[in-house]
Amino acid sequence: MGKNIALDDGYTSDFIQPHELEYIQPEIDTAHRLLHEERGAGKEFTGWLDWPRRDHAELLRVKKLARQIRENAEVFIVVGIGGSYLGARSALELMNHTFFNQLVPEKRQGPAIYFAGHHMSAAFFSHLLDVVREKEIMLNVISKSGTTLETALAFRVLRRFMENKYGRVEARKRIIVTTDPEKGLLKELTDREGYPTLTIPGSIGGRYSVLTAVGLLPMSVGGVDVDAVLAGARAGYQLYSVQKLRENPAYRYAAVRNLLYRKGKRLELLVSYEPSFYYFIEWWKQLFGESEGKDQKGIFPVGMNFTTDLHSLGQYVQDGYRNLFATTLWIEQPQTDLVVQEEETDPDQLNYLAGRSWHEINARACAGTMLAHTSGRVPNLKISIPEITPYFYGQLVYFFQKACAISGYLLGVNPFDQPGVEAYKKNMMDLLQQ
Ligand code: PA5
User: Fold this and answer.
1) Which position among 3, 119, 135, 425 bears the catalytic label?
2) Rg (CA), the chain
3) Which strands sit side by side in the sheet containing 197-199, from one edge to the other?
4) Nearest to 114 by CA among 144, 154, 68, 60
5) How far is the CA of 388 from the centre of ligand 1 (A)?
6) Strands, E, within 194-345: which ranges?
7) For atom 9 of ligand 1, which residue has the closest CA?
8) Which residue positions in the chain have pLDDT lower than 70?
């Protein structure tokens, strides 16, 4: 059997007894049935569930467009927010070079990739234009609703910018729109202008959409093998459809975090020891925050980058208010490694590390931190990823999507709506219209 993503919940044994996991199994069974038989709240948004197993007619088009963009653009701008942004960014940051945009084009073999439309900072936007003004540009605007203000505002500026730079006819070929196939303002504008279009299926909500064209086009432009991403997600479909907690790490993760919640653990820290996980953690924060935080319930998702944050928030985690638990993302085989060299006079007294790899040192930091936090009464979970490849990215995405849906049903909420997001939008619109 090949390697897969693994969950180690051994560090929670001081907090959860084996019989508690046994007793929660029937609730997992119910959640599983609600999801798989499409009987739960939000059932009309479960199109993501068997998405990796479906025939993807649009995939060929995604790849063709990506090829065109790689050939014709020096800069590719992805315009979107929330579920229309974080998945693509998480994939690119995790799998590509840390300084991707600064690499020489021959090494990058494709355009530099920038993101816009995920806030309303005029400074950010004008600085972005300063960087891309003289380059050959293509862009992808992504919005399911087609009315999200942050995205629409950025697109309005970029559309005008592209039309001024290239003329309206050429600009039309350089703007790719990913939106709802049937409705929305963006869809109407797209039909009028004739932009190349990709779709977000109506049955897949924004935060569950990374494996659709929403994520796959930017990934493909960035050189990520999207077939392998989908293959990993397909493996995830098989692995995480088993009902037994002992055999399904995604369900076990959902069960353990729910048991911890019942014991007063209100915050989950998703920790990584690789900075390239930063946007993946942002994606996870949205997935769990928007799916669970409702009806006055839910675990608050917090992102942490260790060992960096150990020097800022480590004190609190070790010793502050005890309502936290931590889940560590660990890569077994790093993308690249360094070995500490011996120095003759040992001026910095680091020779005791000579011959050891940075990954090994990081692994010791991880083990030491998990032990310390466990003894500080912070339960720990560890999710091990064999290596960072498109295949395991797809599997990891599916792991969390499945765990999140089951977690939502365990908690008794609708994991697929986001009524709270509307509240700020409504107030902002009222204020803007005054
Ligand atoms: O998960 C969601 O539905 C949201 O976070 C959306 O993805 C986000 O608000 C962006 O919406 P849209 O794609 O409609 O512009």
Assistant:
1) 425
2) 23
3) 112-116, 75-79, 137-143, 175-179, 197-199
4) 154
5) 27
6) 197-199, 267-272, 300-305, 324-333
7) 82
8) 1
Residue 290 designated active-site: yes
Q: What's the token pair of residue 203? A: 């049955």
C-alpha–C-alpha distance, residues 218 and 209, integer Å: 13
Pair of tokens at residue 400: 């969390």
Beta bridge partners of 75: 112, 137
pLDDT of res. 1: 58
Q: Which atom of ligand 1 is nearest to the CA of 290?
A: 1
pLDDT in tens, 320-338: 999 999 999 999 999 999 9
Q: Which of 48, 79, 81, 404 to mutate to test the pocket of ligand 1 (most atoms within 8 A of CB)?
A: 81
Closest protein CA for atom 8 of ligand 1: 82
Which amino acid residue places its CA nearest to atom 5 of ligand 1?
A: 82
Task: Locate 302 and state its tokens.
Answer: 């917090």
Structure tokens at 239: 């692995």
76 in helix, strand or coil?
strand
For residue 334, the number of C-alpha atoms closer than 13 Å in the C-beta half-sphere is 18
Q: What is d(CA 396, CA 210) in angstroms, rounded to the nearest whole number? A: 12
Tell whether ligand 1 has an atom less than 6 A from the beta carbon of residue 289. Answer: no
Give 115-152 pLDDT, tens digit per residue. 999 999 999 999 999 999 999 999 999 999 999 999 99
**Exposure letters 198-213 (e unless 16+ CB within 10 A, then b):** bbbbebbbbbbbbbbb
Q: Which two tokens stand for residue 81?
A: 């927010």
The two structure tokens encoding residue 288: 């769990």
List, for residues 84-117, the tens digit of each pLDDT value: 999 999 999 999 999 999 999 999 999 999 999 9
Torsion angles phi and psi, residue 311, rounded to 5: -90, 5
CB of 178 within 6 A of ligand 1: the answer is no
Q: Residue 428: its pLDDT value, please? A: 80
Helices (H), 73-132: 86-95, 105-108, 122-132
What stretch of H or E contains 258?
A: helix 249-262
CA distances from 133 to 105, 128, 162, 259 (A): 17, 8, 10, 53
- Joined together, the tokens standing for residue 23 give 């007793």
Q: Which atom of ligand 1 is nearest to the CA of 150?
A: 15
Task: Report d(CA 91, CA 394) in Å as an integer.
Answer: 9
Q: What does the longest C-alpha to C-alpha distance in the chain come to?
A: 72
